[in-house]
Amino acid sequence: MRIPVSGMSCQACATTIQGAISKLPGAREVHVNFALKQLSYEGLETDLVISKLQELGYDSPRIQEASPFQIKEATKLSHEEGITAFRRFILAFVLGFPEFLIGMGLWPHGFYHWPPVMDAILASVVVIFAGFDIHKRTFMQLKNGNVNMDTLVTLGSGAGLLKAFVLLARGSMMPGFEVASTIIVFILFGRYLEAISRKKTFSASSQLYLALQRSVSRIIGEREEQVSGLELKVGDHIRLKPGEVSPVDGIVVEGKALIGDQTLTGEIKPKSIEKGSKIISGSTIIDSSIVILVKNAGEKSFLGQLIIELEQAQARPAPIQGIADKVTSFFVPGVILFACLAAVVQFLVRGATPEFSLNVFLSVVLTACPCALGLAIPTALVAGLGASAQWGILFREPKALEACGGITEIFFDKTGTLTEGRPQLEKIEVASRQTENELLTYAAALNRYTTHPLGRALTDAAFGKKIFALPPVENLKIKPGEGVEGDVKGQRVALLRCKDKGEEEGTSSELWVEGEVRGRFIFRDALLPETPEILRLLKSKGLACHVLTGDSITSVRQLGLDKMVESVRAGLSPQDKEFVVRASREKNPNGVAFIGDGINDTLALTRATVGIAIANGAPAALAAGAVSLTHGIKDLPRVFFFAKKVSRQLKFNLFWALGYNVVMLPFAASGDIPPMFSSLAMAMSSVSVVLGSVWLGFSLRKGTGYLFG
């Protein structure tokens, strides 16, 4: 279960919530994503979770209707928080900005004279009312024995206000109320910028969701009605017109048209479909109206599954997030202690005045707020995962995104990965008294319910010869990487992969009946048009490429693959592939990737540092892969380029967030930075981290330099 959480202001808030929810009886898999303002958990009742959140000083909007998609609630919460942040900032700015100008000596001399009591009133309104939510959460946290960024802001603004009142009571004409009010103004300004910037980090999910709920024409008898794509059910008929995006998966039952995958890639790549063709959600109709029968809708559709998996991936923490979490867990208490020590040293050792020592305390507290540290990892991660999804690249785990950035060795399956995956039956060799049609009937019957490319080639060949009456098969058994067997007409029949039979032959299989070879089928497959260029490009960037295949070495040589890669290993079983990948991973500290699409690739996909599955392959392979490619290997260079870019941004954000505090704290402790500028610098450091992540997402969505730059 995942629910939105309102009121979080920093990573320390997320850490506090995660710790508290994890302690509830039955809690499992609890994680809080500060960037998405989202809590995920298992084993708990939602009412209990929300009650605990409210006890901690946070809340979660009540979800009016159950939905498998969280982006709608996340977007709504983000919008509401943005409006609230803007209103509070405007209130603080209108009342606090004149004080800032006076304090800086920028107010026109003689234009207006502010009595100190007016300063006191305006500053009190700004600190107490504009900053009310901040102080409320501070006291709620203290009540539960926790401290966070709000604690630092409350300490800073409260101490500044108290100091000004003390000086006012002593008769000072410039008590410094602008310090307290300006702190709140800058903090609220930074949070407003964070709110509007954070919305862009998960804009990919929003765009995909919009495509899923777009209005289309549903056909009911002789009439048509406009309905949201989310209202469609399996069995409905809808009409799609030029320019419309299909919100469902289905089969064309009327018409012929060109379609493109513009929603997923931003580029229209035309493909012709006609009656009987399949169409997936997210496809854009280009030139003609068609009618389709809905097969999958909503969360069951291709686009729906993509959104759900993207949301789940974005909600999971990256391994590097652990560094930030460990730092923030002790950072705030450490900052308060350091600020107290700095103020005491200034007062007792250096003989500073109480006012100056208090200013040092305020500067240290405000400079060190860990907002940027909390935003550093999740914002870059969400931006990278979202941009990748728009290109049809789905990272199911953040750790896969990090790992891809260091990969130096790639292993490829051949059939369906580097080739078209639609081998054609070229010839049949008869080894007994049976005819070619009889052999083909047996083979097609065995493969009628399999998804293997060679099986499809056999059934296509049988139908091409008008062999439609296939006998039933009992005790069917699929042997991944070897073949298939079963009982046909009372006889045990097996179709098994052949060993290499000679240079002139391609991929081949033998048909066995009751332990006797009755014939042999020879297949041909063709390379994908993009395969040579993709392999050349990957090699030019220092990635070692290898082919692991269950086919014969002859089939590999006929395609010329042996000249495009560093090595080829043929005639491998699934266990052989797994052994090769595992052995290479043990030798390669940078990690290895395996790319495949079949059931026989499942072991290797799980054994590799990163398993990359072709989305239209076998479901088992897709489930085993940590990354899936909607459009096949043509987007493989983007996988590694995106991973490198995101990894660099993750490290830069973390370095900036930590480096900012390391550099600024000594200046704050020395008293060289006034408190109001400390609050501004802190706010801008957080905003810079978010904007950097937003720019990362923008550049990746545009695909700029995807060929490794």
Overall geometric form: elongated
Residue runs with pLDDT of under 50 for 5 or more positions: 704-709
Query: Kindly, what is the distance between the CA atoms of the first and last residues, rounded to a whole number of angstroms?
Result: 39 Å
Number of helices: 23
Largest sheet, described in full? 7 strands, mixed
DSSP helix fraction: 40-55%
Number of E-type strands: 25
Beta-strand level of the residues, as a percent range? 15-25%
Mean pLDDT: 79
* Main β-sheet, spatial strand arrangement: 13-25-24-23-14-21-22
Overall structural class, as computed from helix and strand content, comes to: alpha+beta
As a whole number of angstroms, the C-alpha radius of gyration is 32 Å
Brief summary:
This protein is of the alpha+beta class and 709 residues long. Strands 13-25-24-23-14-21-22 form a seven-stranded mixed sheet, sandwiched between helices. A six-stranded antiparallel sheet has the order 5-4-6-12-7-10, with no helix packed on it. It has a six-stranded antiparallel sheet with strand order 15-20-19-18-17-16.
